[in-house]
C-alpha cells in the first residue's frame, strides 16, 4: 500500500488550497475581490485542476517544512455545457507576478486549450510578468526580456475562442495577456488595466495619476482596450458564459444553434417609423437591432469605444451572427480611424469563428477634417475595407439609410454573393446632395450672383427628384426594397440558408 504517499498528496493539496495564507486572503477580501478559488467555483460547473502541486517548497532534514503554491492555477472545466480550459492568477501569492512555475503552467494551459480545441478563459489579477526589481538581487543578474509561450498565445487567436477577464489591477504582461484575446472583460472600480501602474508612470514620466484615472474602466473602455465592462465579478462571469454561448468550441466547428421561442416570421410595424424623414435627425439604431434579432440576444462589444461604429453578437432564430452597424448619434454614424480598426478586428473575429455578418448600414462616409487627417483615417479605413473583402462568411446588408463614399462602399464584399436589401429610407451616392451641391456647381453658382440662392434651390429640387431609392431599384443597382416591418423574416430566412453553406476550419491567424 502507498498510504504514506497518499497522505502526503492530500497534505500538499491542502497546503495549495490555502493559497497565500490567511493574512493575504483577508487582504484580498478587504479590497472587495474574490480569491482565485472562489472565482473558479463561481465561474465553472465542474473543475479538474492540473498542476496543483507546483510551487516552492522548503525542506528540513528531508521533511517538507513549508510550501508556497504557484500563483497561477490551471485546469479543465465545464461552463454551461462547454468544455473549457481556465488559467487563473492568484494575487495572494506574490501579487500574481511570475515565480518558478508560473510560466510553464500558463504555457501548458495555452497549449492544452489550443491542441484540445476547446475555449480558453483567462482570469487575470496582477502583472503576470517578472515581478519586482528587488528580484535582481536575489537572482544576482538581470535578463533580456522575452515572453515564454507567446507563440501559443498568438496561435490560439486563430484556433479557439479566448475570453480574458481583468479582475484586479492588471499591468505589463498581464495587460498584454488580457488584450490578446477575442473578448476582454473588466470590472468597474475593481480592476484597472495599464502598461505600467501609477508609481512607475510618475517615476518615469512625471505624471501623477490615480489608478482609476490612469487605467480605470472609463479610460480603457473608451480607448478600446477592453470589450465589455461588468458591474461585479459575478456579472463578469455571467458575461463570460454568455459570450461562449455564441461561439463554436474551436475554429474546426460551427457556431452552436440555440433553441428560439421568438417567431422567425415576426413582423414589426414599429420599424416603419424608426428612421425619421428628416435626414439630419439621428435615431436609435440599437432599438432596431433589438427588434430585428432574437429577443434578448444582442450582446454589444466595445460600446464605449469608437462610438459611431457598433459591433455586436446576436442570434437569428437561434443562429449566432456578427452584427455591424452605425450609430447616427455620433459623427452622424461616420467612420473614424478608431471605428475602422474596431471594424477590422470584429470582422477578423467573425471570420475565425464562422459567424455570418449582418450589416445594418447607415454610413455617411469617413469623418472629415483636420483631426481626421491627423489620425490617418483613410489608411485605417482602407484596412477595414480590405477586411470586408477578405471575409468569406455569408454576408447580409440592410441599407437602412445612408450609403456614401468609400466608407459606404465597405457595406459588403461586392465580388461575391450576399443578401442586400434596402429600406425606403435608403439614400446613397458618392456624396450627399447637401454637401456636394455647392462643390459640383460652384462656378455656376458664382456666376449667378444675387440669384445664387434661388439657383441652388432649383438645382437641389432637380437632384432630389432622382434621389428616390426606387430609381436605383429600377436599374437593379440595389436588389430589393423591403418593408422595414418585414426585415426580421428576410434575415431569418437568409440565416437559415447561410448556415447550410458555412464551412468549418481555421482561417488566417487573427489579430488581437
TrEMBL record:
PROSITE patterns: COA_CT_CTER, COA_CT_NTER. Residues 1-260 form the CoA carboxyltransferase N-terminal domain. InterPro entries: AccD/PCCB, AcCoA_carboxyl_beta, ClpP/crotonase-like_dom_sf, COA_CT_C, COA_CT_N. It comes from the Bacteria. Residues 263-512 form the CoA carboxyltransferase C-terminal domain. Gene3D superfamilies: 2-enoyl-CoA Hydratase, Chain A, domain 1. This is Methylmalonyl-CoA carboxyltransferase.
Amino acid at each position: 500500500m502507498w498510504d504514506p504517499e497518499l497522505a502526503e498528496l492530500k497534505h500538499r493539496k491542502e497546503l495549495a488550497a490555502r493559497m497565500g495564507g490567511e493574512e493575504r486572503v483577508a487582504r484580498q477580501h478587504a479590497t472587495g475581490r474574490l480569491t482565485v478559488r472562489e472565482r473558479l467555483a463561481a465561474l465553472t460547473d465542474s473543475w479538474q485542476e492540473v498542476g496543483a502541486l507546483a510551487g516552492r517548497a522548503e525542506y528540513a532534514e528531508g521533511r517538507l517544512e513549508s510550501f508556497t503554491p504557484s500563483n497561477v492555477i490551471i485546469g479543465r472545466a465545464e461552463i454551461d455545457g462547454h468544455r473549457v480550459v481556465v488559467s487563473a492568477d492568484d494575487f495572494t501569492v506574490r501579487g500574481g507576478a511570475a515565480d518558478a512555475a508560473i510560466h510553464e503552467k500558463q504555457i501548458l494551459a495555452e497549449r492544452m486549450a489550443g491542441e484540445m480545441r476547446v475555449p480558453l478563459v483567462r482570469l487575470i489579477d496582477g502583472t503576470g510578468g517578472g515581478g519586482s526589481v528587488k528580484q535582481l538581487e536575489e537572482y544576482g543578474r538581470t535578463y533580456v526580456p522575452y515572453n515564454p509561450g507567446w507563440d501559443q498565445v498568438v496561435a490560439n487567436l486563430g484556433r479557439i475562442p479566448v475570453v480574458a477577464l481583468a479582475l484586479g489591477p492588471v499591468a505589463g504582461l498581464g495587460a498584454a495577456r488580457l488584450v490578446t484575446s477575442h473578448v476582454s472583460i473588466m470590472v468597474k472600480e475593481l480592476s484597472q488595466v495599464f502598461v505600467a501602474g501609477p508609481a512607475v508612470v510618475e517615476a518615469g514620466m512625471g505624471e501623477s495619476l490615480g489608478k482609476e484615472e490612469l487605467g480605470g474602466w472609463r479610460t480603457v473602455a473608451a480607448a478600446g482596450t477592453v470589450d465589455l465592462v461588468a458591474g461585479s465579478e459575478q456579472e463578469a462571469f455571467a458575461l463570460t458564459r454568455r459570450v461562449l454561448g455564441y461561439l463554436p468550441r474551436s475554429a474546426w466547428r460551427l457556431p452552436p444553434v440555440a433553441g428560439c421561442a421568438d417567431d422567425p416570421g415576426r413582423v414589426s410595424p414599429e420599424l416603419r417609423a424608426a428612421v425619421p424623414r428628416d435626414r439630419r435627425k439621428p435615431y436609435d439604431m440599437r432599438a432596431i437591432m433589438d427588434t430585428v434579432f432574437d429577443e434578448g440576444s444582442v450582446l454589444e462589444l466595445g460600446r464605449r469605444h469608437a462610438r459611431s461604429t457598433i459591433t455586436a453578437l446576436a442570434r437569428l432564430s437561434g443562429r449566432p451572427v456578427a452584427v455591424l452597424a452605425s450609430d447616427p448619434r455620433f459623427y452622424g454614424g461616420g467612420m473614424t480611424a478608431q471605428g475602422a480598426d474596431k471594424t477590422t478586428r470584429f470582422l477578423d473575429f467573425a471570420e475565425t469563428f464562422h459567424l455570418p455578418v449582418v450589416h445594418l448600414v447607415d454610413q455617411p462616409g469617413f469623418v472629415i477634417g483636420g483631426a481626421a487627417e491627423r489620425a490617418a483615417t483613410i489608411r485605417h479605413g482602407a484596412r477595414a475595407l480590405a477586411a470586408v473583402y477578405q471575409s468569406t462568411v455569408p454576408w447580409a446588408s440592410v441599407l437602412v439609410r445612408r450609403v456614401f463614399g468609400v466608407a459606404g462602399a465597405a457595406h459588403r464584399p461586392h465580388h461575391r454573393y450576399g443578401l442586400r436589401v434596402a429600406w425606403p429610407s435608403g439614400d446613397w451616392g458618392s456624396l450627399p446632395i447637401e454637401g456636394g451641391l455647392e462643390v459640383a456647381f460652384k462656378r455656376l453658382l458664382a456666376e449667378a450672383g444675387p440669384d445664387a440662392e434661388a439657383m441652388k434651390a432649383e438645382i437641389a429640387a432637380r437632384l432630389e427628384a432622382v434621389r428616390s431609392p426606387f430609381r436605383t431599384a429600377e436599374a437593379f443597382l440595389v436588389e430589393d426594397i423591403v418593408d422595414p416591418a418585414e426585415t426580421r423574416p428576410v434575415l431569418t430566412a437568409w440565416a437559415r440558408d447561410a448556415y447550410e453553406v458555412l464551412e468549418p476550419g481555421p482561417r488566417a491567424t487573427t489579430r488581437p
